[in-house]
Amino acid sequence: FESELKTHLQVAAVSTYVDDRIYPAVRPQGGGLPAVVFTVVSADAQSNLDGLDGSLRQYRVQFDCWSQTFDQMVNLALAVRDRMNVAAANFRAVMQPGSWFDDFEDDTRLYRRSMDFSCWFKEVP
Length: 125
Hints:
By secondary structure, this protein is α+β, with helices and mostly antiparallel strands.
């Protein structure tokens, strides 16, 4: 799922801001900005009418959009949100209500927008 998610985000609308700076879990120390960090918060197998479907999972993913300026952080976050609203080959996503918040870190002088999405992923055998 994680590699497909990263590939899904590597489109012009997002790459315009981050090039290839899309990272799982943590932004590397000294890594360039702006950047996107995605963290899988949970991954639950889903059921269908026949019981547990081992190939269908619901992931909850947090996206953190980092930048040195507020405006750039907002534009990057909007590009990520818009891209996540486009269906991928093996997953669909929806933003979690009330999950969007902005932050400023005094020690790093960086802006961050955090957003949570639910993603339904179908593993291909």
